[in-house]
Amino acid sequence: MAERIKVLLTEEEVDAKIQILGDQISKDYEGRQVHLICVLKGGSFFMCELAKRITVPVSLDFMAVSSYGSGTKSGGVVKIVKDLDDPIRGKDVIVVEDIVDSGRTLSYLLEMLWARGPRSLRLCTLLDKPERRVVDVDVDYTGFQIPDEFVVGYGLDYDQRYRNLPYIGVVQFESDGE
Ligand code: IMP
Ligand code: MG
Questions:
Q1: Mutate which of 44, 67, 77, 101 to test ligand 1's pocket (most atoms within 8 Å of Cβ)?
Q2: What span, in angstroms and rounded, lies between the C-alpha atoms of 42 and 58?
Q3: 139: closest CA among 148, 130, 150?
Q4: Is there an atom of ligand 1 within 6 Å of 99 CB?
Q5: Which residue has a Cα nearest atom 9 of ligand 1?
Q6: Would the CB of 102 count as within 6 Å of ligand 1?
Q7: Each residue of 84-119: pLDDT tens digit?
Q8: CA 16 to centroid of chain Cα atoms
Q9: CA-wise closest residue to 133 among 89, 176, 175, 101
């Protein structure tokens, strides 16, 4: 199915927001070190930009989960595809995600990470679609709340494409009558 991308948030808007989040995190973690956990692949672009704007010491780790299937709806089953390289016990951890949608992935992930004994555990997401929430998730840092539309860019994909767009766009399908 052919699709078009309509700009929802420009590169300038996204960059300005990441600066604000970086400033806030730098302030909140003053005198400490933050351990950022990137949820691959979507969170990677956001995490790099965010990490560059944090002024306290930063360490990084990566994790990949899969909620099965491709397309525009995320499923309910979460599988760890790549686990962290390092333990998180005693660390001040921030999970960095591209988007919180139903909340299933994050609620599962956060519960699993809590069990590993971090000193603190927070969640930072670039985008949040609150209307779509099925499972309650506490989000500590949110870039933008967006309506219930399928978005791509800045790490987010549609069937593995469009992650490299430097802005956030809405996917418009031909069947939308456009
Ligand atoms: P959740 O478990 O339903 O909150 O969904 C989590 C994952 O679904 C996100 O990390 C994304 O990978 C994917 N996802 C949800 N909404 C979108 C979207 O609008 N565009 C691209 N990926 C999405
Ligand atoms: Mg993701």
A1: 101
A2: 20
A3: 130
A4: yes
A5: 99
A6: yes
A7: 999 999 999 999 999 999 998 899 899 999 999 999
A8: 17
A9: 101
* Structure tokens given for 20: 């604000």
> Which one, of 16, 9, 15, 42, lies nearest residue 146 by Cα?
9
- Which residue minimizes the CA distance to atom 20 of ligand 1? 151
98 lines ligand 1 (CB under 6 A): yes
| Whether the Cβ atoms of residue 91 and residue 119 lie closer than 8 Å to each other | yes
Cβ of 43 closer than 6 Å to ligand 1, yes or no, is no
Answer for the pair 174, 10: CB distance below 8 angstroms, yes or no.
Answer: no
Query: Is 101 noted as a catalytic residue in this protein?
Result: yes
State which of 62, 96, 99 you would mutate to test the pocket of ligand 1, scoring each by most atoms of that ligand within 8 A of its C-beta: 99
Residue 142 has which token pair? Answer: 């949110």
Which residues, other chains included, contact 162 with Cβ-Cβ below 8 Å and sequence gap of 6+?
Answer: 5, 152, 153, 156, 169, 171
In the chain, the amino acid numbered 151 is V
Which residues lie below 8 Å from residue 70, measured CB to CB, with a gap of 6+? 159, 160
Reported as half-sphere exposure (CB side, CA atoms, 13 A), residue 133 has a value of: 15
pLDDT tens by residue, 157-175: 999 999 999 999 999 987 6
- 174: Cα within 13 Å, side-chain hemisphere: 3
